[in-house]
Write a structure and sequence with these properties.
Order of helices and strands: EEHEHEHEHHEHEHEHEHHE
Shape: globular
Structural class: alpha/beta
Number of helices: 10
Bound molecules: pyridoxal-5'-phosphate
Distance between the termini: 37 Å
Oligomer: single chain
Helix content: 25-40%
């Protein structure tokens, strides 16, 4: 088997905010510079499955700024597998940092119109070049059973049994499903959705849960700041302030919204005083490179 070395994550206690509530941050952002945070956990079981099935090419889908694309390219590379990214929209004149990173890891990129992207069709040139038996497909964002199973290992990074609440940012909900599956029955799991009006999210998470764990989570839908990858000056000031107070960097797509939500939920006593909260830092810091220079102080 591959020996793949990752840094250990660690839990940072937040003491500086003056809350009675005890908050720890599980620093999954520290495990790897590209395959940061939850992406590694979501991908590893897919990659093992691909190897078991003797597939040589990982194929997945994403937008030009997708952390999932950059992470899949790097992770497939570590496993000695080729990777292909089907990217939504026209080929840009200048590649985003994410796409540049994906290319550097050897990913082959195919740009498709928004319509064919929606149908998740495999472009014809691709089916001429490779035969379908070589390809192993991973859903957009890594959504699916293997993703959720991999994410179950997140709570095994350290002893997490003492926490009353576990809070994480949510895109597809695959990570949250893994957290729900692996938490104790007494622990509450809350997900902060970073998308606006994602009405099917709860259903999609439940699809990844066994009967006895269905609905064992709460979704917060009020912290999207305008929608996926949207931000306001309030969010940016909060992220800078949070870094000043805690030394923890966050990204504007996921974890900035997550920490903002946690602070509000504690202030509003949605998370009651004397709770012990574990906040999952799911990584994503590379996304900040698409912000104008000087926006963030870290
Ligand atoms: C992709 C991503 C998420 C969302 O994970 P899902 O499993 O799709 O819900 C959360 N945080 C960061 C930093 C991400 O890159």
């Amino acid at each position: 088997m591959n020996r793949i070395e990752f840094e250990k994550s660690r839990t940072d206690p937040i003491l500086s905010l003056g809350f009675e509530t005890d908050i720890d941050v599980l620093r999954l952002d520290l495990i790897h510079p590209v395959i940061s945070g939850n992406k590694w956990f979501k991908l590893k079981k897919y990659l093992e499955d691909a190897q078991m099935q003797r597939k040589s090419i990982i194929l997945t889908f994403g937008g030009a700024f997708s952390n999932h694309i950059a992470a899949t390219a790097a992770a497939a590379n570590l496993y000695g597998l080729k990777s292909i990214g089907i990217i939504r929209g026209e080929k840009p004149e200048q590649y985003s940092h994410t796409l540049t990173e994906a290319l550097r890891s050897g990913m082959e990129l195919f740009f498709v119109s928004r319509e064919s992207y929606r149908e998740k069709k495999i472009p014809e040139i691709l089916s001429e070049k490779y035969h379908s038996g070589q390809l192993y497909m991973i859903n957009e964002g890594g959504y699916g059973e293997w993703g959720a199973r991999g994410a179950m290992d997140i709570l095994a990074e350290t002893d997490t049994s003492r926490y009353t609440h576990i809070v994480s940012a949510v895109g597809t909900g695959t990570t949250l499903a893994g957290l729900v599956r692996s938490c104790n029955s007494g622990q509450q799991v809350a997900g902060i959705s970073v998308m606006k009006n994602n009405f099917s999210l709860s259903h999609e998470i439940n699809e990844l849960l066994p009967a006895e764990k269905k609905e064992h989570f709460k979704l917060e839908q009020a912290y999207h700041f305008g929608g996926y990858a949207k931000y306001t000056s309030e969010l940016i000031s909060f992220m800078n302030e949070w870094f000043r107070q805690t030394g923890i960097p966050s990204d504007f797509v996921y974890t900035g919204k997550l920490f903002y939500a946690v602070r509000n939920m504690i202030r509003e006593k949605k998370i009651p005083p004397a709770s012990r909260v574990l906040v999952i830092h799911s990584g994503g810091l590379q996304g900040n490179l698409s912000l104008p220079n000087g926006t963030l102080i870290f």
